[in-house]
Design goal:
With 393 residues, this protein is of the alpha/beta class. 29% of the residues lie in helices and 28% in strands. The strands form 4 sheets. The protein has a 7-stranded mixed β-sheet, sandwiched between helices. The protein has a 6-stranded mixed β-sheet with strand order 2-6-5-4-1-3.
């Protein structure tokens, strides 16, 4: 049967012809009135020429999220081929001693709204848009056919779903999802991941390469892992020969899992190395002499309206860290707020350095790992920016 059509206004087809996967409401000249959120549509230009096929949502300013720019059926085989290819190239590039990685990164892998992370023999899936949600059973079939997981945990919740008009849905989707934290390997190090209730899908897989960077320069240093969650950066620091690594996080539950992660890697730490505290307060009051600090805060800007307030928060936390580091100290600083561009983030670092009265060199520009690819036609997919800095004076 022919697809319902979303017809663009004259002259508004350039973005779709350039393979951008989002069609905004303002570009649409004519749209169906009887479709449900997530229904599939064809997008055409004003003259009726096919541009792409995707999922429609009348509740969102992003009216259509395009899955394909070819006239082809979006069936189980289509999704199975996409997922099989996505996992295959990742496995070829990942080190053998890594069993956790992102399999599908939404638009970055050509499946808008689907986030899929592998943890050993299981998967954690997030369906964040109306289109992915409507295709959930088809996508599940493709996962089972190609990825063959022992279990799948669904973690479909949060702001993106709410913006799409969707309720949260969290629970086991397939198999026996472990109640206890799932063991994984990352670059040969052991971690336990709470796939049922941990942050994001359980672990910050996007920071894998940056954690490895910390390991390479940690020898002999005293390291602060701020907003440290379950201790990932601290585990890597001690594995790299750090003299001491202190993790600070507001969640005592996360710190308890951090203690288990240290233990799993044979690392001896004391209770003073796992601090349940507000990081801003800790940096103002604690007297420990650190010579390397990792700042990996949660997203301070979850909307465009929050950018100014978030920028102040990022500036304040970097200012406090810069004041604590001696000459020769190292700072790894991140923002996972997609609304804070890399350019704005660098300006924030500049402003913090000015106020701290420190000479700061950017040694390396950082981002998410390669298993979180960015579609070249969809630069909005970049969300994690970071800088590895040297405090020279």
């Amino acid at each position: 049967m022919p697809m319902a059509q979303v017809i663009l206004k004259p002259g508004r087809e350039k973005s779709a012809r350039n393979r951008h996967p989002w069609i905004f409401s303002g570009a649409i000249g004519q749209e169906p009135l009887d479709l449900q959120p997530g229904d599939l549509v064809d997008v055409t230009d004003a003259d009726g020429h096919f541009l792409g096929r995707g999922a429609y949502n009348p509740r969102s300013q992003i009216r259509v999220r395009i899955f394909t720019f070819i006239d082809e059926e979006l069936d189980l085989a289509w999704f199975a081929n996409r997922l099989a290819a996505a996992e295959a190239w990742r496995r070829r590039l990942l080190p053998a001693q890594t069993t956790a990685f992102r399999v599908c990164n939404g638009e970055g892998d050509g499946i808008p709204g689907l986030i899929l992370d592998r943890y050993g023999d299981g998967l954690v899936a997030t369906f964040s848009t109306a289109g992915a949600d409507a295709l959930r059973e088809v996508i599940l079939g493709a996962m089972l056919e190609t990825l063959q997981p022992a279990w799948i945990m669904e973690r479909s919740s949060g702001g993106f779903r709410h913006e799409e008009g969707l309720a949260d849905r969290v629970g086991a989707l397939h198999g026996e999802v472990p109640d206890d934290p799932a063991p994984i390997l990352e670059n040969g190090l052991k971690f336990l991941v709470d796939v049922r209730a941990g942050q994001k899908t359980g672990f910050f897989l996007d920071q894998r390469d940056n954690r490895e960077g910390v390991r390479r320069v940690a020898e002999g240093r005293t390291v602060l892992n701020a907003f440290g969650y379950t201790g990932g950066f601290a585990v890597y620091a001690l594995a790299g020969g750090a003299r001491r690594a202190v993790t600070v996080d507001a969640s005592r539950e996360a710190l308890n899992l951090a203690a288990r992660n240290h233990q799993a890697n044979g690392q001896k730490i004391g209770p003073e190395d796992l601090v349940a505290d507000d990081v801003f307060q800790f940096l103002r009051e604690d007297q420990t002499e650190f010579d390397m600090i990792v700042l990996d805060p949660p997203a301070f800007a979850k909307s465009k309206a929050a950018i100014n307030r978030a920028a102040r928060g990022y500036k304040d936390i970097n200012l406090l860290a810069m004041r604590r580091l001696p000459p020769g100290g190292l700072l790894w600083t991140f923002s996972c707020s997609g609304h804070i561009s890399r350019e704005l983030h660098q300006k924030i670092i500049f402003a913090a350095a000015i106020d701290a009265g420190r000479d700061v060199q950017i040694l390396r520009v950082l981002g998410h790992g390669f298993d979180h690819p960015i579609n070249v036609y969809h630069p909005e997919g970049e969300y994690l920016s970071g800088f590895f800095c040297h405090i020279s004076a």
